[in-house]
């Protein structure tokens, strides 16, 4: 099912754009019993198994949408909805080419089935990957409807056209619903025929890029939307886990539930036996109600034999990374130009810096949960999830059943941010249900969730730059060590360098920047100590969350060393030639487009103007996560530093984004705003430490994300573009932290090189520069 990455390329799932489909009036169709986020959402929170399909004819031109006899258009969404309005965006792509009446479009978030292909929502891929295949599916449906409508109207096809769900021709018209009821729709498209369909030009579009009502908002507002935590089935029990002291290697020695037996509704506690190795050492506390499960779990006493990570702390991981980077033989060389050593040998000036980041938790609003039930030999798992295709084989292994005997039902996610790419939380629920012989719903508390998280790994980065006699940049080396989530969870997605050394593209992307720096080397090293101590996870912004912190902070430091304005220094390196020239269809224009958003955001922010005391502007840029799917983003942060407390206040963020064609303007703006604020949160507030095998902070009293009172003013602008639509989920996040760090230096000459930025680090920088 998985597409293996080509050598030396970023790994990503393939889209379904190469399949053909049959257009036909089907005697059966998908029911609307699948839970989904729209105005026709199920009227209760009871999880249902899909019933037998009724015989109501529908127009089912592809797996991506159907049209009913009433003209209602149901678009199948195989992506996870977690607040980003992906259903609205994808449905809009279909509806645009289908010439649908938007008021008759509904969303259907599908359950797992092999026909959907690889089901994953992450990497800012969803719109980018699906724009073309969904456009062609909609266009093919429109052509078939026009042909059949013309026959029913007794008008030549050439005289007909479709508009807002109606076929018109020579003064007559017929609705899509009437065509479905009366017509004989039958047409087959080959992949070659689909590819040959001429799609609309950007100027012909009436839905894409326009402001229309998002389809999922009403249910979220009125409470009808159903999240994983809402799912219920008759006769289910509740469970809360007792999580062992280490992620790996823990074993249960004894369980004492004497005190828990006094809790009304408590049933039993037992150690899970997990053939998949996902939750070693877990104890499940089962009760008739969730309240009873929570109270009883607090009273159950478990003794474990901990794994080796019980003696590991955050500083150990960072020290280990530092030693790794000192050994040039380790890791993979993602970029490896000739002449790096010679350039440094001949350099008239060398600059060398070290940047670090802390462990970061997800802390999504809805704690992880899952409901498992076996029906006639099939395991039904009810949970919000971002990567169904990743967890299905793991569940099958854990339950010792074929993968065909596991179905994951789709629900809205109360926040994902990459945490639910790893569906490990489904395993304990399934094993508990198997053990007790009844449906079991497991809900983690906030603290359970934090301890079971797949956090963003701490990182260490070593960056060097060489300048020649003329003051021109002649070489740059960027080396990074961190835990690799892809290595931990899906090694098949590891890429390889030219020498065949594997690396995690999601742990180094961003270091392969678009600046022309002469001879360049980028080396990625897997932090084995991090990998063996916890399960590193993907977190919104992924690798660029730390790589871009180093790149853009270093660019400012290099500009300072060269005695050049930071904006001018960057623009001088964005030459849009060679490998930085860009390529079709996704990276047309290359570095020139990054230079454009940089200059534009600088103009908006008043770059170069005098600032009030202890206030500064900092600039940073990013292309997002992947070079062949760039979202050109530039940010200026206006920051004020209180010298008495060294507290940093972000007063305003200016951001300019070139994401190609914008499908859903409101959704894109919401993504940019959320991403920018997430960036502020991780820059100044979020970060924990790994201590004695666990994260130090397990709740929001000590782990303190950005609060509303600290939200800065946002000024976000999108570049008008007709280029390929790229991703919006992560790029805005990655430019914010370095912009803030650079602004702190501009304000008070204190250079910070660690995330999150704490007041004591700002004070240390002030002391070092003699500023206080």
Describe what you observe in this structure.
Residues 222-308 form the Aldehyde oxidase/xanthine dehydrogenase a/b hammerhead domain. It comes from Janthinobacterium kumbetense. It holds the Pfam family MoCoBD_1. This is Molybdopterin-dependent oxidoreductase. With 772 residues, this protein is α+β, with helices and mostly antiparallel strands. The chain is 28% helix and 23% strand. The strands form eight sheets. It has a seven-stranded mixed β-sheet, with helices on both faces. Strands 5-4-3-2-1-9 form a six-stranded mixed β-sheet. Helix 9 links the parallel strand 18 (378-382) and strand 19 (406-409). The chain is globular and about 80 Å long. Residues 1-10, 15-19, 25-44 and 49-55 have low confidence and may be disordered.
Summarize the structure.
It contains 20 helices and 32 strands. It has 772 residues and is α+β, with helices and mostly antiparallel strands.
- State the major sheet: 7 strands, mixed
* Cα separation of the termini: 60 Å
Number of helices: 20
Helix-and-strand structural type: alpha+beta
Q: Please mark out the parts with pLDDT under 50 across 5 or more consecutive residues, or reply none.
A: 1-10, 15-19, 25-44, 49-55
Strand proportion, as a percent range, falls in 15-25%
| Shape verdict | globular
Helix content: 25-40%
Kindly report the average pLDDT value. Answer: 92
Number of separate strands: 32
Radius of gyration: 27 Å
Widest beta sheet: strand line-up: 12-13-10-20-17-18-19
